[in-house]
Amino acid sequence: MTVGRTFLRSVLVMAAFAGGLQAAFADEWRTTSSLIGESKYGNNFQRYDYVNPDAPKGGTLNLVVLGTFDSFNPYIVQGSPAAGFTQFGGGLLYDTLMEQATDEGSVSHPLIADAYKHPDDYSSATYRLDPRARWHDGQPITTDDVIWSFQVLKANSPMYSRYFENVTDAVAISDREVEFHFSQKGNRELPKIIGDLVVLPKHWWEGTDANGKKRDVTRPTLEPPLGSAAYKIASFKPGSEIIWQRVPDYWAAKLPVKIGRENFDTQRFSYFLDDNAAWQAFTKGGLDDIKPENSSRRWNTAYNFPAVQAGDVIKKEFKTASPEPMQAFMLNTRRPLFRDRLVRAALTYPLDFESMNRTLFFGSNTRTSSYFQGTELASSGLPQGKELEILEQYRDKLPPEIFTQEFKLPVYDSPQAERKYLKTAVDLFAKAGWVIKGGKMVNAKTGEPFKFEILGWNDTDQVLSSPYIANLRKIGVDATLRLIDQTQYVNRVNNFDFDVTISQLGQSDSPGNEQRDFWSSKAADTPGSRNYAGIKNPVVDALVDRVIFATDRDDLVAATHALDRVLLWNYYVVPQHHRSVVWMAYWNKFGIPEKQPAYSGVDQNSWWIDADKEKALAAKYKSGN
């Protein structure tokens, strides 16, 4: 997942994945897990090499969040979880069995579990718990907690349900060891990603609240849950603010993954309903200390307020080496309007990325042309070798262009390009039974207009949609944008109640079980899944399984190329763009390690409050200077 941009590759690693290291260590205890070879730290991981191990603890991190919240239970479809909770992983409150590395791809290090092992046929995985692991109430984290968490999450969380689809059960084989059984052999990813399991406190969730009412893990709640991680909820105002306090006796504070990290004593999240109000809060200081920036226009034109000019707010660009997400207009094929592939192809051509990049994005973006952009897993050219062998099995069920044409998106590189590509779109519509009459695109048989709504929730959605809508109207397509508040937006997207929406799908260097949540027929009917397009394609289902059960790295690359190509040629989305950097602006109150993890770009958890800087800022801005 989210499942996160946390995977890296190397030539040595390829050979390892192909059979060497994985088989050599099968059924032996390992303290670090990797899908593509040995970690750069080997078997002696002491701490991340970029952190300051002596970083001081203390101070308050102030952050702003858009929207609102009404739940402290992020693992169900109902409700909007508060900041600090995540749908996948433990967030600020819970620990997972192992923790995904911030500076390497497909690597995890010990957390609740201090080691794991699996047999060479990948039919199961056993995790051994660290005897020091504790809940905030002092009770030990037990195998019962692990087993109960697995059962609850698989039953109630769409993400974990797809992720662990081939995990049949979990059983305790000792006081410290839990064995997970798999329904199929040969899934090389599954033993490792069991480590992503978030562990919940069974005794707390099965207990009663202050009013004597039995708690229900399948329902939203605003009762602060018991946790195990570095923070716990200190206070909150429903829907508007939540404050997290660092746990002073956190059991894992001295584990390698935590050294030099999680340094803020307090994290305060303030909610705003409007992006402009949130921006003003950042410029004034005090409510928002760090602003990840996604708007090219704002990054290039708006960071000229007094605090920036005085050097009190710093702009910085962090380069990343991780795969780029597929950001796109997601076409909901559950709607009859988008079920025809020719129609979906036609909708691709009116997007003039080049003009948008020049006039709106200051030339800072790159067009996304693969679901696995930035990795060797992205398809290119024509299929050949093993990929071609895989695709040949489904030739009669695939678009014929897959075998004869390289997939290319339109490039608006000349004044004549718009006319050319809009004509291509009209021709494709005509083949699908749609014609222009009276300036409107209508169904040739019924006269029904081609009309749809793009669902969004912020100003960025408007920036992305407006030029596209304008070009669609030139060919008679009646597209509109509807902006709603974030809570409504999340609920509608979770229930697939939209025609088109803008979203991102992040990938890794080692795709596997999460692909079911993105593309499978089953996920298309599961509220809360990330199959936004509603894809129900038997070939895609088969290729997802082919990826999951790849026999080695070469096989994985070929299978992923095939999946990528089939998804692209079916035009389930209209791709937008990506940027291989993270833009961040922050008030100059932090100590920051000189080096940040190249893979993820930035690890905010490795920062700390510089007390002298914070005091100087407070004095300066309180006095109005």
Can you put this structure into words, describing what you see?
- This protein is α+β, with helices and mostly antiparallel strands and 625 residues long.
- 28% of the residues lie in helices and 19% in strands.
- The strands form 8 sheets. It has a 5-stranded mixed beta sheet.
- It is globular, with a radius of gyration of 25 Å.
- The N terminus is likely disordered.
Question: Which helices and strands appear, and what pairs or packs with what?
Answer:
Elements: H1 11-17, H2 20-24, E1 33-34, E2 60-66, E3 98-100, E4 107-110, E5 113-117, E6 124-129, H3 143-156, H4 158-163, E7 167-172, E8 177-182, H5 190-193, H6 202-205, E9 231-237, E10 241-246, E11 266-272, H7 275-284, E12 290-293, H8 296-301, H9 306-309, E13 313-319, E14 326-331, H10 341-348, H11 353-359, E15 366-367, H12 385-392, H13 401-404, H14 417-431, E16 434-437, E17 440-443, E18 451-456, H15 459-474, E19 478-483, H16 486-494, E20 500-505, H17 514-519, H18 521-524, H19 538-548, H20 553-569, E21 573-575, E22 577-578, E23 581-587, E24 590-591, E25 608-609, H21 611-622
Domain Solute-binding protein family: 109-523
Subcellular location: Periplasm
Keywords: Signal
